[in-house]
Specification:
The structure holds two protein chains of two kinds. Chain A is an alpha+beta fold. Chain A has helices spanning 2-20, 65-81, 104-113, 127-132, 172-181, and strands at 30-31, 36-38, 43-44, 54-59, 88-92, 120-122, 136-137, 139-146, 149-156, 196-197. Chain A has an eight-stranded mixed beta sheet with strand order 1-9-8-4-5-6-2-3. Chain B is of the alpha/beta class. Chain B is globular, with a radius of gyration of 18 Å. Classes of the chains: A alpha+beta, B alpha/beta.
Chain lengths: 204, 161
């Protein structure tokens, strides 16, 4: 417990230093809605999900080894939580010119191949990526729908074990969503999103 | 008889350790091991965090090797710490060999990714590449989440040595 607290303290101090000079959301902020094109050609907005209680917004992509490592865990999150009111919405933040592997066509292929049960959208202007402050792929934002809007409840990694080798790893996103479903406070609200940097448009 | 066996075993082992010292190897490195490696007060440590899959990292690696080669007679030590997955040790070894890296190469041993990143620097988001400069005598420990050209890297060394 002491060790956990120490780690938490480090995480919190890290957060302060990290958010001080970085735009993007902090826990407690209201997240903006968006209208992004998904691989099935439809436009996706949070507001489309009338019965949702919240959202698991995941910035992820095709090419990144970290995104690949987490692919099946992202699919599992949607299977586990969509029916409980927290669907996964995946957003590819990368500029396909900078990273051709992340083109819309390649996104379509991957979603079909892996049988994504959730929308896989592309942030062509990168405005949503900037507004949320996504730093890496994958980067998760857990939102809770309230009267005031969609409140950010958790920002960071899916768990602390990308390679999925430690059976006792901490499942940050599951813990956060479980807390929200159970009407409890999210304990760990921010972690570092370890992964590949966002591939911004050149000159942006 | 036993002595003879022991003797040949020692001979065998020393031969192999010698062979390993000749060809470059890549070992796992925990945060504790890294801190221990950076503990000499008279040495400036420049530690680059990279990965075989990270384009900008691969591009800047020769600059770090160039710095190490240029100042091989000065107390500066370049450590190249790969953040590839632990299961990719073989690929990191192959990469090190084919790219003929001259600096010491390690593979990060992260039992917990979050604490490894925080242990290097609390301001580090985890994005690659990243570079750490340590000069214990001058109490310098600075982290840069950016890429370096050779000139920038040389400047970094000159201002922190």
């Amino acid at each position: 417990m002491k060790k956990f607290l120490a780690v938490l303290m480090i995480a919190v101090t890290g957060l302060v230093a990290f958010t001080a000079d970085t735009p993007g959301y902090k826990v407690g902020d209201i997240a903006t809605d968006f209208k992004l094109k998904s691989v099935d050609g439809k436009m996706v907005s949070l507001a489309n999900y009338t019965s949702a209680k919240g959202y698991i917004v995941v910035f992820t992509c095709n090419h990144c080894p970290y995104a690949k490592a987490y692919e099946s865990r992202i699919i599992a999150l949607d299977k586990m939580y969509a029916s409980k009111g927290y669907p996964v919405i995946a957003i590819s933040p990368n500029d396909p010119v900078s990273e051709p592997a992340d083109s819309f066509d390649n996104m379509k292929k991957l979603a079909a191949e892996k049988k994504y049960t959730f929308p896989y959208t592309i942030d062509e202007t990168q405005n949503i990526t900037r507004a949320y402050g996504a730093k890496a792929t994958p980067h998760v934002f857990v939102l809770q729908k309230t009267d005031k809007g969609n409140v950010v409840k958790y920002i960071g990694a899916i768990d602390d074990d990308t390679e999925n080798v430690n059976p006792n790893h901490t499942k940050y996103v599951e813990n956060a969503v479980n807390a929200l479903i159970g009407g409890k406070t999210v304990e760990t609200t921010t972690t570092k999103a370890i992964g590949c940097s966002i591939k911004w448009k050149k000159g942006a | 008889m036993l002595l003879k066996r022991l003797f040949s075993a020692v001979l065998f082992l020393s031969f192999f350790s010698g062979a390993f010292a000749q060809s470059k190897t890549v070992n796992l490195l925990s945060i504790q091991q890294l801190n221990k490696r950076m503990s000499n007060p008279d040495t400036v440590y420049i530690v680059n965090f990279w990965a075989t899959w990270c384009g900008p990292c691969v591009k800047e690696l020769p600059n770090f090797d160039q710095l190490q080669t240029t100042y091989k007679k000065q107390p500066v030590k370049v450590l190249l710490v790969s953040m590839d997955f632990k299961s990719k040790l073989g690929e990191v070894k192959t990469f090190t060999k084919t790219r003929k890296l001259v600096s010491d190469v390690f593979l990060a041993d992260k039992t917990n990714e979050q604490s490894f990143i925080d242990g290097i620097d609390k301001s580090w988001s985890g994005a690659l590449p990243g570079t750490l400069v340590v000069n214990n005598k001058k109490h310098i420990r600075k982290f840069y989440e950016q890429e370096f050209t050779y000139n920038e890297l040389n400047k970094l060394y000159q201002t922190n040595k």
